[in-house]
Amino acid sequence: MRAVRAAALGLLAWFSLACGPWGPQGVLAGGPFLGAASASFPADWSFSDAHPLIGIETRGALLRHSVTILCVAADGKLYVMARHAPRKRWVQNLGRDSRVRLRVGDALHAGRAVRIGAGPEGEAVARAFLRKYVGIDVEEARPLIGPPAAGDDHAELWTWRIDAPEPGA
Amino acid sequence: MRRAAWALLLLALCAGAFFTWARLLHAGPLGPIPGGRLAGEPASKTPVDWSFANRDPYLLVESRAFALPWSGRVWFLAHEGRLHLLLPGFFGDDLVRRLDVDPRVRVEVDGRVYEQVAVAVSDDTQTGALLAPVLRRQFAIEIGGAVGRIPGATQAPLWVYRLEDPAGESGKDGDVH
């Protein structure tokens, strides 16, 4: 009976806190990634273009939380993005702590998420995104930054560049 | 050790029971987890213009292609008054496989369920016309100037379906939103 109660409580905790100890499972969020991150930070992330989806682990107040997300490489750097960003838990976690771990294929990399805005970097990411996920090259691509105005239905998209982790992080 | 194994087994059983409940008994999808039949009230009229639906980020769609009703929340766009399903390959092809078998779907907007038929949009002109509004709505990217396709650049296709009234009487009753 005690084991049943423990299992039920564990399951409840897993679903309410998404803290399963095995990372995200498809569309389901998970907890911390198992394994240690690679010691070196990739100088060129172009290899990530072979992966439509990657896993990201963020740090909440108490628990680590991981989800499956889109990513693009532009100018050798890695960028991750969130649609309808403000309502997502992993995004809220990044506001508290920018340290992340990324599962790209079988490899695990530690990094630091730095949010980017408009400007040439944002436009380069938008172009890279269109190449990778839509298969098109466009003359002009302008990311819409900030929440949509009233009556405008575009998604609120936030983008982060993944930088090397701070030493000792 | 034995107790831990029992606890793990029970945890797995509970998880199995949860997914079975979500899939078979829950009305509609449970967040990203597919569910059973949509429980909204059947609509008596089909809107002339679906643009009002764009205020929701996802559309609830039910397919009855196989033995059990399947429902999920999917990306969509109401463009020029018509509903379009946007099904990116990186989320899997669950619904696409179902639409191949049976294109009839039920969609739920504002608690009302509408019977529709999904028609694949493969014509370059039609998909081209949808491109800019889709990118703006789904990815907050505005494009301009020349657009060129890069053959083989993307590993995940984006399937697009236009929803049509099964009786071809869209808006006949004048339920304008």
If helices are DSSP runs of H or I spanning 4 or more residues, what is the number of helices of chain B?
3
For the record, the CATH class of chain A is: Mainly Beta
Strand content of chain A: 25-35%
Count the beta strands of chain A: 7
Description:
- The complex is a heterodimer of chains A (169) and B (177).
- By secondary structure, chain A is an alpha+beta fold.
- Chain A has one domain: Roll (Pnp Oxidase, Chain A), CATH 2.30.110.10.
- Helix content of chain A is 23%, strand content 31%.
- Chain A has three helices and seven strands.
- In chain A, β1 (54-59) and β2 (64-74) form a beta hairpin.
- Chain B has one domain (2-164): Electron Transport, Fmn-binding Protein, Chain A (Pnp Oxidase, Chain A).
- Helix content of chain B is 27%, strand content 31%.
- A six-stranded antiparallel β-barrel of chain B has the order 2-3-4-8-6-5.
- The longest helix of chain B has 23 residues, at 2-24.
- The radius of gyration of chain B is 19 Å and the shape is globular.
- In chain B, 29% of the residues are buried.
- At the A-B interface, α1, α3 and β6 of A face α1, α3 and β7 of B.
- β6 (136-143) of chain A pairs antiparallel with β7 (141-149) of chain B.
Entry summary:
The complex is a heterodimer of chains A (169) and B (177). By secondary structure, chain A is an alpha+beta fold.
Keywords:
heterodimer; A: 169 residues; alpha+beta; Pnp Oxidase, Chain A; 6-stranded antiparallel β-barrel; 3 helices; globular; B: 177 residues; 6-stranded antiparallel barrel; disordered C terminus
